[in-house]
Amino acid sequence: MNKKIVPVLFVLALLLAACQPTVSDTPTAEIEILTVLTHDSFSISKELVEQFETDNKAQLNFIQGGDTGSALNRLILTSIGSETPEADVFYGLDNTFLSRALEQNLFESYQPEALASIPDEFKLDPSNRVVPIDYGDVCINYDKTYFAEKGLALPASLQNLTNPEYKGLLVAQNPATSSPGLAFMLATIAEFGEAGWLEWWQAMKDNQISIVSDWESAYYTNFSGSSGKGPQPMVVSYASSPAAELIYAETELAESPTASLVAPGMCWRQIEFAGILKNSAHRQLAEKFVDFMLSKPFQEDVPMQMFVFPVLPEAELPEGFVKASQIPETVGSLDSALIAEKRDSWVNQWSDLMLR
After folding, report:
1. Alpha helices of 118-212 — where are they, by DSSP H?
2. CATH of domain 136-269+328-354
3. What pTM did the predictor assign?
4. 3-state class (DSSP) for residue 159
5. What is the Cβ-side half-sphere exposure of residue 140, based on CA atoms within 13 angstroms?
6. How sure is the predictor about 323, in pLDDT bands with cuts at 50, 70 and 90?
7. What does the pLDDT average to over 126-146?
8. For residue range 72-106, what is the model confidence (pLDDT) as tens digits?
9. What angle do CA 71, 37, 333 make, to 5 degrees?
10. Which of 24, 55, 134, 286 has the fewest CB atoms in 10 Å of its CB?
């Protein structure tokens, strides 16, 4: 070897050694990425996301999959038989689609400690493959100004909506693609029975009800009470939606410009769940995220972010949310086994009638 090269190589070796990280400089753990599939209405405070990520050395990756029905369809298509599902956790499954999801065997069982504090009325899966996170009542919202200016009395029942004075005034969602749309369809079945619900929808079709694919289109495009520009002064939405109109108004208001029709037979209680997907590569982190969703900070964030009610009894509700939200005294209900057996058939019957 050339002797002149030896000192140069020695210096280079020292420089390379100096550049190598010591054990103490090496990160103790890599950032773990957790993917959560949700519906488009999912929202959470940035501060809470950052806190979870910091506490768990994690990064949360949220995928919005459309309305609940669309997100579930996507989940079924990408997860069944897959060793690498698209997501680790699914949030937004509700009681109208629950049986369909459980039949597909999509989720792993998990029982968070906080579940013991949740009222039994929200626990619809005895195997805890999904756990309840929040709830809201699907009702018809109306534009107060429209009805006041027209001197038009509010409909006191679903049957009243078929009267000619309400022709063309309601927009609803397709139950095949929208969870509030499906909830509203079930409310009509609960109200009129299997022998009479399609007759009601035929009367509503004759009365020019508008049908759109999702909640966002119905509320922000068709409903006059939100944008002030839509053609319909009534929309299938939530009894807590008027609270959002009050709190997020561009100028301070004394009351919400919208309200809900909460007479008996006009509403359906929607419960939303979260579940850990089978074959998740991040099972422990997924469990921590479900725990996080049932924690008091997350539960108290739910009303102002998604305008639904938390299932945790000790979660405190914001004043503005309570002021403008309405809670129906009674809500429509059907046996879960009946829904599981006939949901698809009902949706097909509805589609044959309303979309053709």
Report:
1. 144-150, 179-206
2. 3.40.190.10
3. 0.79
4. helix
5. 26
6. confident
7. 97
8. 888 888 877 777 889 999 999 988 888 888 989 99
9. 55
10. 24
